[in-house]
Design brief:
alpha+beta, four-stranded antiparallel sheet, T9SS type A sorting domain-containing protein
Length: 137
């Protein structure tokens, strides 16, 4: 009888653990059930524009944000679960010099691109003045 109790107790424990894990939620709290994968292309033009191209799968959402160095959101775009692509052009000419970040997230993964704006200071022309003194008699 004692030899029968140990295997029976082990089998009941294993059955209970298996049923609890199968009934538990596989998706952690706060995450959307469908996560969209995405591909991006980000580039700046010589005229001060920032082009963002994003292609994603349907079924999940993606957010695009432009943040300043102190974390202020300057631009935000939300792509719904049925949208497949986004093409946008941001004008950076009115922004002050500094460091900015483009942040793209699907709720699980976050992609960040750092953008540095700096204005070249005009160079002062260097000028040399030479004088020749001519003696007259």
């Amino acid at each position: 009888m004692k030899t029968l109790i140990k295997p029976l107790l082990f089998a009941l424990t294993l059955g209970f653990v298996t049923s609890v894990t199968s009934f538990s939620e596989a998706n952690p709290i706060g995450r959307s059930k469908a996560v969209a994968t995405y591909k991006t292309g980000i580039y700046a033009t010589r005229t001060g524009k920032l082009n963002i191209a994003l292609d994603k799968q349907t079924g999940g959402t993606v957010d695009i944000r432009l943040r300043s160095n102190n974390g202020t959101v300057l631009y935000s775009k939300h792509l719904g679960k049925n949208e497949r692509m986004c093409r946008t052009r941001l004008n950076l000419n009115d922004l002050e010099d500094g460091v900015y970040q483009v942040e793209i997230t699907n709720g699980v993964e976050v992609t960040r691109q750092t953008i540095t704006l700096s204005t070249k200071q005009p160079a002062l022309p260097e000028r040399t003045i030479a004088m020749n003194t001519v003696a007259s008699n």
